[in-house]
Write a structure and sequence with these properties.
225 residues, alpha/beta, 8-stranded mixed β-sheet, 20% strand
Amino acid sequence: MKISIIIPILNEARRIPQLLEELKPLVQNNCEIIIVDGGSEDGSVEMIEHPGFIVERAGCGRARQMNVGAARATGTILLFLHADTQLPDTADLLVKQALSNNSLSCWGHFNVCIAGRPKMLRVVGFMMNIRSRVTNIATGDQAIFVKKTDFMAAGCFPEQLLMEDIELSKKLRIISRPTCINSYVITSGRRWEVYGVWRTIFLMWRLRWDYWRGIPASQLAGRYQ
């Protein structure tokens, strides 16, 4: 099984050098790395032009960027990674084991840990992991992975401005329950620190509640930004 790791970016010049260093071992393990730019203006794309990394360009919008990357991918497994999230060292092996030929699941996600100074971020990450196990809904911060055939069968990511990960999870859980890898991905807590942990918690829950009530993602995206 070959893994294609798809990373949407937009103006991530400060993060790119460390991201590339984190991904080099996976390149050496024959993972395909596809970075899809959404119109960066800070030189991000030029920084990525190294052997082993494929650069694609798409219109702005994370869902659209990930779909473009998936269309380009040659792997049998797709792993969608946010630019500010770090995979564990053996991520490729863990994913292959999770989706082995005798597995009943066609998709899954990692546990997540939110990095940052506030101790409350550990609690937030813990609650995210519990919620995913109970609801079978994963978020992009948890590095969703899926067999490419099932991703295509589910219709790919809906090209909306927000909640595309929730919609994909809803479609995939009809096909099978997700596999949760107990190892952790580490995602940045910068948004939480800038805007305040409790303020961000309330915002996220309000957005999810409003989305559940039927408010379009296009209307919610402005509040998220």
